[in-house]
Structures are given as C-alpha cells and as structure tokens.
Design goal:
With 333 residues, the protein is an alpha+beta fold. The protein has 2 domains: 7-95, Phosphorylase Kinase, domain 1 (2-Layer Sandwich), CATH 3.30.200.20; 99-294, Transferase(Phosphotransferase) domain 1 (Transferase(Phosphotransferase), domain 1). Helices cover 30% and strands 18% of the residues. A hairpin with a 3-residue loop joins strand 2 and strand 3. Helix 4 runs antiparallel to helix 5, helix 4 (114-133) packs antiparallel against helix 9 (263-272) and helix 4 (114-133) crosses helix 11 (296-303).
Length: 333
C-alpha cells in the first residue's frame, strides 16, 4: 500500500486508482518530465522475473487506440515502506486515462442509451480483435477492466490474466471473473470465442443495467452449458431492438460453435443491424431513435477527434489521418 506523496524511483504517488486480484494501480507523476502516469504494482513480488514481465510484454506487443499503452516496466531497490520482493519492487508504468471504468458508469447510470452502448461495443470489439490477431487471449474481459475517457474513448486494460494462444490450442487455466466467463472457460478450455462471450455479457449489462444471470455456482454449470440461466435482454429492457437482442444472444451462445468466433464478426453485425421497417400502423409511432442508433455508429467513430485512430469501414484496419483509400483492402473511405 502506497500513500500520497510517496516516491517510487522517479515516480511520485498522487492517489490510488483501484485494486484487483493481481495488483494495485496508482496515479503517479513522472517527476523527470512532469507527466501523469498509471503505475500497476503486482501483489506477488516474489514471482520469477520472466513471469512479472509477462503482462508488460503482452501490452508492448500491441499498439491500438482502444488498448491501454504500456510505457515501461521497472524495478527499484527494496525499501521498508512498500510491498517489495527481496530483489526490489517491480511495477508497470502505463498511460493514465482520465475517466472512469465502464463498471462505475453502469453502476451509476443503469442501462446506457443505445447509441452510446453500441459505440462502446464497437470500440471494445476493435480492441479485442486486435489482441486476437496478435494471438493474445484476454480471459478477463469485464466492465471493471475497461476505462472510458472523458471524451468517450474506451480502452481495454488489465492483461495480467492473458496468454498467447499461438503455443496452445486453448487456455488451460481456469481463470477469469465468473459472471463474465464463458461456459467452456470453467473447464479450462478458453478460446478466442470465450472473450467474445465476455463482450456479450458486458453489452448485455450496458443495455439492461444488470447481468444476464447470477454468478454460476458449481452445481449450475450444467445449466449454464445448456443456456438455461440466460434471460433475453429484451425481457429486461423492451426498448432494445430485436436485431441487437439477437446479436447479444448469439454472442452469449453457450455452445462455442454457435457463437461469434471473432470480435470483428460481432462488430460487423452491430454496424450492419437496422431496426426492421414498420409492418403495421401500431408501429408507425415508434421513435426512429432506436432504429437509427446503429446507423450512427460509424459516423460517431469517424467523427471522434484525436487521439482515436480511424478504421477502414470494410476491413476494420487502422487508417492514417485523411487517407481516402484503405491501403489494406483498397476500399474508398
């Protein structure tokens, strides 16, 4: 536990930002360049040094506007006033995102406005798809691990439970946050589609203000596998368009083969979804806001100012500023 004004190397602690199962995060100032940063101090300091470097190395292997940026990892000599190991205190220095977690936003506001929820959905899908293309499985996607800046930029963080899937068929460790874990994750068989399931739970929570089911107990796992615990989001919030509800249910399919296999597939369906045209007079008075919400996602993503990068509407790969044609797929923007 560190206190305001305490110094770790060249970093001066300003305030605590939060604490989880793997470490505590503090707002600090780099006293050499007068820059605010976030410092993550792992709880377990006596791990092998290679294990301590796992998370910063994963973060360093990715560069994406919707993933928190790692600045460096450092180790300073042990002192009597910090949780240091025998060889000194190890910590990770990351960019500081001025804002709050998505978890806090949902707790404070309840169900989010549809356009905003889908905007955030596209951003988290972009981040997760980038990680998956790098072979990285997150395994602990949840609102508490997603930061939303004051400008509305979402950044996925906390890759402490992540692993490269290129060296194994699936993640074999049973790890994650139970309310957001896919059924197969409880059996140590996490795959990329398991992260998509976690996104589905998060989207469900944004749209309804609640989880799709209570945290599964061991005796509930078979029912979870059969999809018996899941309640349709529209039963909790009738304002959710059917097209969006269907997307959420597909993301939450208990059978991994029936689920979206990639985050980009989920995002593509969100962008393409439209509220069906009215088929009866009784529907004519329905507000067009929900029907138009998904159509606004692309324009909202493109209109966001720096530092958010532009993405090709067709292949979702990053674009340089003012690029008229995607260099990857050749589509005009």
């Amino acid at each position: 536990m560190f206190f305001r004004g305490q110094t770790i190397g060249k970093y001066r602690i300003l305030s605590p930002l939060g604490s989880g199962g793997f470490g505590s995060v503090y707002l600090a100032e780099d006293t050499w360049i007068d820059k605010k940063v976030a410092i993550k101090v792992p709880h377990k300091q006596n791990l092998d040094f290679t294990e301590l470097l796992k998370e910063p190395r994963l973060l360093a292997s990715m560069s994406h506007p919707n993933i928190v940026t790692v600045i460096t990892a450092e180790k300073v000599p042990a002192s009597g006033d910090g949780p240091a190991g025998k060889d000194g205190l190890f910590f990770i220095v990351m960019e500081y995102v001025a804002g709050q977690t998505l978890e806090h936003i949902i707790m404070r506001e309840g169900p989010l406005e549809l356009t905003r929820a889908l905007d955030l959905t596209c951003q988290m899908c972009n981040a997760v798809d980038h990680a998956h293309r790098a072979g990285i499985l997150h395994r602990d996607l949840r609102p508490g691990n997603m930061l939303v800046s004051e400008s509305g930029m979402l950044k996925v963080t906390d890759f402490g439970t992540s692993r490269f899937l290129e060296i194994a068929a699936h993640g074999t460790t049973v790890i994650g946050s139970p309310p957001y874990m896919a059924p197969e994750q409880f059996y140590g068989k996490a795959v990329f589609a398991s992260d998509v399931y976690s996104i589905g739970v998060t989207v469900y929570q944004m749209l309804t203000g609640s989880l799709p089911y209570d945290t599964p107990a061991p005796q509930d796992l078979e029912r979870l596998m059969r999809g018996e615990l899941l309640t349709s989001a529209r039963l909790k919030n009738p304002k959710i368009p059917k097209s969006i509800n269907d997307i959420v249910l597909k993301a939450l399919a208990p059978d991994v083969t029936n689920r979206y296999q990639r985050a980009s597939d989920l995002m593509n369906d969100v962008i393409a979804a439209r509220e069906p045209a009215p088929v009866a007079v009784r529907r004519a008075s329905r507000s067009a806001a929900d029907g138009d919400a998904v159509a606004e996602i692309q324009s909202r993503l493109k209109a966001r100012t720096a530092p958010q990068a532009r993405f090709c509407w067709h292949c979702r790969k990053p674009l340089q500023a003012r690029t008229a044609k995607c260099p990857f797929c050749g589509e005009s923007q």
